Amino acid sequence: MARRKRLAATSKKEKHEQPLKKAKQSTKPSSTKSNEKSISKNLRSLTNKKTIQKDKVKIGQNTLNMRCYPTKFLKIVQKLELQERHMKAMNRTPFGHFLKMPNLLCERTILEESCGVWEKGRKGFKLGNSIIPFKVSDCALILGLSSHGDIVDFEKHGECTEFQKRFFDKSLPTTNVIVRHLQRLMYEELGPLEDFTKMMVLLLFSTVLFPQTNFSLPIQLLSYVDEIERLQDYAWADAVHRFLIKHIPDASDRVRRKKRGESQTAGYINGCAILINVFVFEHSNIVKPKSIARDKVPRLFKWESIKHHRKNSAANLIEGMKDFQVIERLVPRDVENRFLSKKATQDQKKESNKDSLESIKAERDRLFEENVRLMKENDRLTGENSRLTTEIHMWMKSFHNAQSGMKWDEDEDEDDSNGYSMSSSKQDKFVEKDEDVGQIDKKNSTLDEQTHTVKDESKEKGKGLRDKKKSSKITSPFLLFSSPKKKGNKTIPMDDLNELERNLIANFLNLDMDGTIVFENEDTFCTRKQIFELLTRRCLEGDVINVCGHIFQEQSRTEDGELRTIYVSSLFHHWFLNGETKKAENHLSALREMISTTIGLVFIPLLTNFHWHLLVINMKKGCFDAYTSKKGKMYMKSAEAIVAHIKNNYKEIVDEGWQLNDCVTCPKQTNGTDCGVFVLKYMECLGQAKEFEFTHVDMDNFRGKLASLILQKSQTLISKAMGSES
């Protein structure tokens, strides 16, 4: 009995302890793999919970990614090995130029930083202190697509076309599906070329222009591609712009959350994201393309490789951008205007044709009437010109007669000094002698005595005329710039010139001073007449200043061939004053490409109220300097207008805070003809970093130096001219 009780108690104890043993066994570290996984999972979850409670999630290393892959498009095109017929068919669409697209690499860090400075309300990117709007015209210039035409509707839901049924009835238009169809159509020699072209356009859409999740594209675009003959009528730049700008705000929010530490990744952005990078590059000068690619069209193609210092992070480039590095507006070149011009619809074209016929007829009638008027005006001007020519000839004849009569000084070796102050009796005697040459030969001795007598009288009376300054002296309206002491077209003294310079000028003065071009350089030229005016103390024309300015610019090159100074043609100020802004910009816009780290000075000659003065952009000191050889407030106001224009339109070159300095201590002229010579002397001294150690006395010598400088550059032309005339 006792034994039964002990067995029952033992069985009860075992039953009670068995669950405890199983529980202990389940907590041992030598459990099964499934238990290990569950334990590690639980540990990770616990760890993650603690981490979240203590600290925020650390910033992840995954930058903003994109679904736009131009490289993928190019690799597929290379593998397909397109034939000439395929290329021609593609070129008939607006997208043919993408087949020649270089291998473009989009830096994701710059893409992320660019999206981080997106201003949603203004729909633009904040570069420096400016918000640059992201416009359709920018997309057109970058991609080479039209910004005008019919609108592409992404909400369009039409009937399924026959093209869609044949190729995408059972699958979405993804890149992989499109490639399979292209491979099949490629080798179907008799297959429709139109289908292949449509597939190529869809491939471009899914990889570059309209990519979205899984390398697909908006299904609505299939109906537009199916009407391949009408692709030219749509504003594709506007379509790319609208599709991309719809996804930028969301990507910008994710980038900002990542920077705040609220997310580990910035995710993806749909659309043509490489457009954002190129937009930032084009609107700034933080990076530069290779010089050989600067003029490529479209602008997307010139960013194959960029001059980007890797040590500078993308954040430093974008967020640290200065105002002078920002280009607010892209100026289209002539070859790019076709992307921005409006395309008329068929109805508009018909109406415009009718209007154009009427306008052509009206214009023809107007031109006929204008031609008749001009013919009458030409006849009137011809008669007026003939009258003025005769009058000028008479003036010149009387002037030369007066000049020959006034030449009394130092003429002892001449035997014919008997004109201006000779008594009437002596004049009658000489007239009689001239009429009878035989009698003159017989009475030589008598004539010699009379001649000496006349000489003495002439000298005394000529001297008296000069001392009393009688009103009988005739001045010429054609010698406006002659010195009172130097009558006629006397050239400058050449004593201070070297032998080579004197010989060049002496040989030049043997030529006819006409309009023959002596030297031609870039957008200007110089004639014999203009150099002669330089040598005879006349006012300088803009052509002479431009030629010398370009020569000074070339002389400023370093050993590496880099320019230290830049000269802007005087035509810039001429067109600026006449309101021809476009023509003026043709002479100033080249600064954007020419400006480099070696450029120290930019010379801009100004002509205000018939007076030449100089405006200098000092790139090293960061200021503007104004030089004038004659005092006057109008000259400073003229310089201020140019400075304001440059600050507004060339912010990538100059800073808004640069001041304009009036250099009042520069040497001044003492006559009315040396202003242009002073401008050139200012440029020479500044370009060579010399002090202004000259006065108006040195201008004659400098005129000779300038003339010989031009002639040395054109010795071949001078020698040919001399040979032809000899």
TrEMBL record:
GO terms for molecular function: deSUMOylase activity. Residues 357-391 form a coiled coil. GO terms for biological process: protein desumoylation; proteolysis. One of its GO terms (cellular component) is nucleus. Residues 517-686 form the Ubiquitin-like protease family profile domain. Keywords: Coiled coil, Hydrolase, Protease, Thiol protease. Residues 11-20, 439-465 have a biased composition (Basic and acidic residues). Residues 1-47, 406-471 are annotated as: Disordered. Pfam families: Peptidase_C48, PMD. InterPro entries: AminoTfrase-like_pln_mobile, Papain-like_cys_pep_sf, Peptidase_C48_C. Belongs to the peptidase C48 family. This is Ubiquitin-like protease family profile domain-containing protein.
